[in-house]
Amino acid sequence: METAQRTEKEKMLAGELYMADAALQAEQVLVQQLVLEYNQSNPADGGARTTLLQKIIGDLGERVTIRPPFHVDYGSNIKIGARTFVNFNAVFLDCNKITIGEDCQIAPGVQFYTATHPLDAETRKSGLESALPITIGNNVWLGGNAIICPGVTIGDNTVVGAGAVVTKSLPANVLAVGNPARVIKELK
Q: CATH assignment of 8-186, given 2.160.10.10, 3.40.1080.10, 2.40.50.140, 2.30.30.140?
């Protein structure tokens, strides 16, 4: 019995090495056109903006605000919970799932990086890459220009300080700052 060949997208979402083939590149081109349209849209036309966001983001909760400009790789791998606010210049490298909970506050310039590359130079030169999911809990506040690295989970109610680089998962109800981010205080 033969096993069906897995697509590059299936490998990508499984966290395995994959190649950005023609199908993935075509998906990116389509979403980039929508993102460009959104980023240039009239702020007074909320209905049109919401319709565009629903086409860009895979799973968009009610009353989500994303202030343009923002950038995605695919969009379809992003889930954003209700009432979450994303300020200017967010970057979502969603080569794997990015899940953001409800009632989150995301300051300007926050970057979500699911993409990662092999440490081995020859493998990296071949164009193979991989990606790990990011999960952000409910009621999380990410300070300006924070960077969330591949494979990170941030627990509910956690606050990440401005400019922090989150390289490891953070529990719920803490304040984390720095590069690399470290917990400095428990929150009630």
A: 2.160.10.10
